[in-house]
Amino acid sequence: MKSDNVKIKEMLFTGFYSGYVPLAPGTAGTFVGMIFYFLEYLIFGPRVSPWVNVGVAVILLYPAIKLGDAGELYFGKKDPQEVVLDEMMGYWITMMFLPFSIKLSILGFILFRIMDVLKPYPAGKLQELKGGLGIMIDDYIAGVYACIILHAVLLAADYCGIIFL
């Protein structure tokens, strides 16, 4: 029988069990990340400083790495697909410094998934790192790339006079 501590860790590193979705668990984990992003907006509204989200991402990196380590131990393999906390965090990073909108949230979701699959340099290389660090760091980087692209899309739309939000 699993201890309560192991059950809590499992719930967290599997993204509230979304990592057990048989097809595309990473996409399911990203969706859970999007739900948390929506909840943040519903609870706190636009008053939350983007720097708070940066702080949260930085502060949660160490526990997320430790949970990634726990996930590898739990499943007995490197970077198990069931561990999707990294996708949740990567999506959170994707949406930093952006105004809240459903359209941007969906576009951010798509861009993050593309970046997570493509793993542009140095994400693919850093994924080779051992344990939770290797699990988390590539998704943090994919989130940064997706965030930059999303900002560029917004700037281009604004420049062209397109109201995107």
How is this structure best described in words?
There is one protein chain. This protein is mostly helical and 165 residues long. The protein has one domain. It is 70% helix and 0% strand. The protein has 7 helices and no strands. Helix 4 (85-94) crosses helix 5. The protein starts with a helix and ends in a 6-residue tail after the last helix.
Fold topology:
Blueprint lengths: L3 H10 L11 H20 L5 H26 L9 H10 L7 H17 L4 H4 L4 H29 L6
Helix pairs in contact: 1-3, 2-4, 2-5, 3-4, 3-7, 4-5, 4-7, 5-7
List keywords for this structure.
165 residues; mainly alpha; 7 helices; 70% helix; globular
Q: Into how many domains do the coordinates divide?
A: 1
What's the β-strand tally?
0
What is the element string, with H for helices and E for strands? HHHHHHH
Which stretches of 5+ consecutive residues score pLDDT under 50?
Answer: none
Helix content: over 70%
End-to-end gap = 49 Å
Return the average pLDDT rounded to an integer. Answer: 93
Structural class call reads mainly alpha
How many H/I helices?
7
Overall radius of gyration: 16 Å
Largest sheet features: none
- What is the strand content? under 5%
Shape descriptor reads: globular
Concise structural overview:
This protein is mostly helical. Helices cover 70% and strands 0% of the residues.
